[in-house]
Amino acid sequence: MQENQTKRNKLVEWIDYRLPIFSYTDHNVISYPTPKNLNWMWNFGSLAGIVLVIMIASGVFLAMNYQPNTAIAFQSVERIVRDVNYGWLLRYIHMNGASMFFVLVYIHMFRGLYYGSYKAPRELLWMIGVVIYVTMMATAFMGYVLPWGQMSFWGATVITNLFSAIPVIGTHIVNWIWGGFSVDLPTLNRFFVWHYLLPMILFMFVVVHLWALHVHKSNNPLGIDIKSKDDVMPFHPYYTIKDLVGLGVFMMVFLFFVFFYPNFFGEPDNYIPANPMVTPPHIVPEWYFLPFYAILRAVPDKLGGVIVMFSGVLILFVLPWLDTSKVRSATFRPIYKQLFWIFVLDCILLGIVGSKPPDYAFFGLIKGVLVGRAATIYYFFHFLVLMPLVGKLEKPKPLPNSINEEVIKACRAKED
Q1: Quick one: average pLDDT of 75-86?
Q2: Any domain includes 262
Q3: Which of 43, 147, 295, 369 has its CA 20 to 30 A from that of 400?
Q4: How many domains does the chain have?
Q5: What is the pLDDT of residue 411?
Q6: Residue 299 in domain
Q7: Annotated catalytic residue: which of 36, 152, 243, 323?
Q8: Is 218 a catalytic residue?
């Protein structure tokens, strides 16, 4: 036994001397110093990474059977579900995995907003995360077109037509995206290629995101810096076990939808083959685009709506400079904490408005367009006015001296 262990150690040393993968893994995963007070909200980043791997793996197998041809694309998806061995499982994992991916990333982003993970020295880390989010949106949109159902076709038509609002070159951009003068075979082929390619680019950005994370280490619920070795603990086994518990809970939720409600997040119209001659009564994107769809519809001018919609995403890039407070965590910021939850409710309201027809009236009285406009105004008001103003005027609570001191205090409180 000891002889085998010695031989294995020599083999590890031989490989590591020539390619230091074992020492790199030990430094960045096993003994990686992590704040000892991370709560369950820090599980969602690793869960999102796992779902990305699941999405890429299931997508590769689906691509082996999918036909990016407008004449048979819809039938090829039906064939995958009905005739390919476990094709139904692959398709429902991939389809619901997209929604689960966005759920995890949204929670991850809102956690960053609450605990100030975008503040110095993690500005670039946050900005790379926003790039990942934008890449996810592009990947998901192109993937939604591939089944070539009614909502796929008309969603692609409506969204790509938005670029025609750009002065002078707008029509040329739309024709280039389409590969012709309408959404047709060249469009589907292009979207299929990009939907296959973008996840690889997304994975590359995730690696860079993790690289940036490991430079200044993870933020923590207190939002204070690591001051000594007492404030940290090795990532393994403490947080690997915690992540595995979170993974178990998440997989139960994920597979519940896969096996029992596989079409919960889908649109019934997408099970009707695409027909350019019949427009659906209500064209609606996937749920994770709904807040920005509501922002788009809130502006009566087409070009203005496009600019405001894209600004709703791009404003996240400059968030580290819009928040003027020197305190990171909302735990010690009583006013910002209240505004954060109001902002969360505003985003949910935008999603609800985006899911309704333009002429929908809330409570039979207030038009949905007016509600969307009010919610859109508050969305930008939160970032451009409230965050800079509150950061300067708010008086935060006193910060703890160290992470370790606060952890010990919390443990003693539990014992008492």
Answers
A1: 96
A2: yes
A3: 43
A4: 2
A5: 87
A6: yes
A7: 243
A8: yes
- In the chain, the amino acid numbered 347 is C
Tokens 């010690």 sit at which residue? Answer: 332
* Torsion 334-44-264-298 (CA) sign: positive
Q: Which residues contact 347 (CB under 8 A, 6 or more apart)?
A: 291, 379
Domain of 298, in residue numbers: 294-323+334-395
**Does 214 qualify as catalytic in the annotation?**
yes
Predicted pLDDT of residue 299: 94
The answer to whether the bond into 33 is cis (omega within 30° of 0) is no
Closest-CA residue to 288 (of 15, 104, 36): 104
- Same domain, yes or no, for 228 and 343? no
Answer yes or no: do 211 and 268 share one domain: yes
Q: Kindly report the pTM of this predicted structure.
A: 0.94
Domain annotation covers residue 413: no
Lowest mean pLDDT among 138-142, 366-370, 390-394: 366-370
Per-residue pLDDT of 320-355, as tens digits, reads 999 999 999 999 999 999 999 999 999 999 999 999
Q: Which pLDDT value is given to residue 4?
A: 60
Q: Which residue do the tokens 């409600």 mark?
A: 261
How many CA atoms are closer than 13 Å to the CA of 331, on its beta-carbon side?
A: 14
Residue 281 and residue 299 in one domain: no
Q: Which of 231, 269, 286, 406 is catalytic?
A: 286
Examine the residue annotation and report whether 286 is marked as an active-site residue of this protein: yes
In terms of domains, do 236 and 312 share one?
no
Whether 242 is a known active-site residue: answer yes
Contact 43/242 with Cβ under 8 angstroms? yes
- What average pLDDT does range 9-33 have in this prediction? 89
**Known catalytic residue at 236:** no
How big is the chain by its Cα radius of gyration, in Å?
24
Q: Which tens digit of pLDDT belongs to each residue from 272-294?
A: 999 999 999 888 899 999 999 99
